[in-house]
Design goal:
The complex is a heterodimer of chains A (330) and B (231). With 330 residues, chain A is an alpha+beta fold. Chain A contains eleven helices and 17 strands. In chain B, the strands form two sheets. A six-stranded antiparallel β-sheet of chain B has the order 5-4-3-6-8-7, with helices on both faces. The longest helix of chain B has 25 residues. The chains are: A alpha+beta (330), B alpha+beta (231).
């Protein structure tokens, strides 16, 4: 009996080619569609040894070297470890080694310059069609006195202190050193490579001041941009309806994947998106607690939520990774 | 058009994801979207974040946070390490699918070494493997911010506990990634209270980290955060 490594993923294209990838550190192995189908159907499962060896021996797309690689890395004689296939395929990924110092930084700058020449640089915030803008006070202007006296200031602190831009650095080109600095935002929360992929959609379900509806929090403008008054039906409806809070707000944290993809073009770098969401969610929780608001959240993967909010979400997807419930009392 | 096949179904990969070599993350996420949509998921409170901002906290300093680029030459008092360890134990008591290792460089009263947090009872187990800044730099892909005096915290997944909690390995992995970010942020906020600046990355070299901490197979490091007095 053999087992198919859960890291093995079978790809195909419209040219009738088929290949299997098992590690982000190596290229895929070309296989016939028949073998590809067997691999895909038995991922992370047991497979008959005799049947497998027969199919491999007859596979005309396979070189002898690739057949060896299949038996070394894709098929195992013991059941695989109970680990995520994605993790197994990307662990110890060979990133650009930065230990040489300046020369590595220069190499990295050349890579980025090539990317910038090749593709449009992704926007640092979403572009949405706003029906109405509501100004949110910048967190940097809010001290104890302001926060003590206004629930709206507290709400502003939570949003602006997490997602607001602290610095908007424009892009520039240093011709002397052939160095491209791309446009970046700096925020109160850290983000690998200052990509800041996490965006916040704000659903006002109950508020003494704000109109109910779905808003996007714009980091550079520090405004809530109203996308529409209709609130989505969700499994949280009962929890929202039974809340005794004066403010009941759902925060949906979505990931603008293109920003990270553009910078880091390897499958391993996706991990940063979820880590980024964790940092943002934690900052909201800490600031909410500081203002005596209540914040709880849950993990989600939802490509549908923001699908119609911007062109970016319809082109690339803007998956939601966290949904939080923020409750405040006057 | 590229498509991925798994268990008898094909999934088309959108052009942007394919162009940027992100086919595998797309497949991973779409599978998670289906798997995780089953069942009820309640809101959770993360208690270890609730006391991070207390009276006396310099909120404006925290709001204008920047990652460190240089490191102070003076040592870190042991009280700073104590505070970070308390923060870690508080977080790991709730996030039971995670584990932590700590590397100390220039902490008063502490050897420069790598330590694994143990829970039964709470104790630090010192590793006998090399853990100098060269090793830490190798764990974070050679980046220069491993140098100087500071505390590096490595957070990772305990697969055995994670599968017990979340059943599916992919869900366990995604949850662990989000949760190491959350715990890392608790450390960042705790560090800020003590004047520390931080820098973090999920781009860790797992094997180097495992060797340094002498980890067993069921543990993998996912994330590193370094806390220092800025220079």
């Amino acid at each position: 009996m053999y087992y198919v490594n859960p890291a093995a993923l079978v790809f195909g294209n419209d040219k009738n080619e088929c290949w299997v990838e098992y590690s982000s550190g190596s290229s895929g192995i070309r296989v016939s569609k028949q073998l590809g189908k067997i691999l895909a159907e038995n991922s992370d499962r047991a497979i008959n040894e005799g049947q497998l060896k027969e199919v491999v021996a007859l596979d005309q797309a396979l070189t002898a070297q690739d057949a060896d690689a299949l038996f070394n890395f894709v098929f195992t004689q013991e059941p695989g470890e109970s680990k995520s296939g994605y993790h197994l395929a990307t662990q110890n990924h060979p990133f650009l080694d930065m230990s040489p110092g300046l020369s590595a930084l220069e190499a990295d700058a050349r890579i980025m310059a090539a990317y910038v020449r090749e593709h449009d640089y992704p926007a640092v915030e979403l572009s949405v069609e706003s029906l109405k803008d509501v100004a949110v006070v910048d967190a940097i202007n809010l001290g104890i006195d302001e926060l003590r006296n206004s629930v709206f200031y507290q709400f502003s602190l939570i949003l602006s202190g997490t997602f607001g831009a602290r610095l908007h650095q424009p892009g520039y080109y240093d011709g002397e050193h052939d160095y491209h600095q791309v446009e970046l935002l700096r925020k109160s929360i850290p983000s690998g490579g200052a990509r800041h992929p996490t965006e916040c959609f704000v659903e006002i379900h109950r508020s003494p001041m704000l109109e109910a509806g779905i808003y996007y929090f714009s980091p550079t403008k520090s405004v809530l941009q109203l996308l529409g008054g209709a609130l989505p039906v969700s499994s949280d409806a009962e929890r929202i309806a039974t809340s005794d809070a004066d403010w009941v707000v759902r925060l949906v944290l979505c990931s603008a994947v293109r920003r990270s993809m553009f910078r880091y073009r390897d499958p391993r770098s996706f991990r940063a998106l979820l880590v980024d969401t964790g940092h943002a969610d934690a900052q909201v929780a800490a600031l909410a607690s500081y203002c005596n608001w209540h914040y709880t959240s849950r993990f989600v993967v939802d490509f549908e939520y923001a699908k119609n909010f911007t062109d970016e979400s319809s082109d690339d997807g803007l998956p939601a990774f966290s949904i939080g419930l923020l409750e405040g009392w006057n | 058009m590229v498509y991925a096949s798994r268990h008898g179904s094909d999934l088309s990969v959108p052009e942007t994801w394919e162009k940027h070599n992100w086919e595998r993350p797309y497949v991973f996420l779409k599978k998670l979207e289906i798997d995780y949509s089953q069942g009820r998921h309640d809101f959770q409170s993360h208690r270890y974040l609730l006391d991070k901002l207390v009276s006396g906290y310099n909120l404006k300093h925290a709001i204008s946070r920047r990652s460190f680029t240089s490191v102070a030459e003076h040592e870190l008092p042991a009280s700073v390490l104590d505070a970070l360890l308390r923060c870690l134990y508080q977080a790991l008591a709730q996030e039971t699918h995670l584990f932590a290792g700590v590397v100390t460089h220039g902490v008063q009263g502490w050897a420069d070494a790598a330590w694994l947090l143990d829970h039964t009872p709470r104790a630090l187990k010192r590793s006998d493997r090399a853990s100098d800044t060269e090793v830490v730099a190798k764990i974070i892909q050679g980046q220069e911010w491993a140098r100087g005096k500071g505390i590096t915290v490595l957070l990772g997944i305990n697969w055995q506990f994670a599968i017990d909690a979340f059943v599916e390995p992919d869900i366990a992995y995604a949850r662990a990634l989000l949760d190491v970010g959350r715990v890392g942020h608790a450390l960042l906020l705790e560090g800020q209270h003590h004047g520390l600046a931080s820098r973090m990355t999920p781009a860790v070299h797992e094997e180097t980290a495992s060797q340094m901490l002498r980890l067993s197979e069921e543990r993998d490091v996912l994330y590193a955060i370094r806390l220092v007095f800025p220079g």
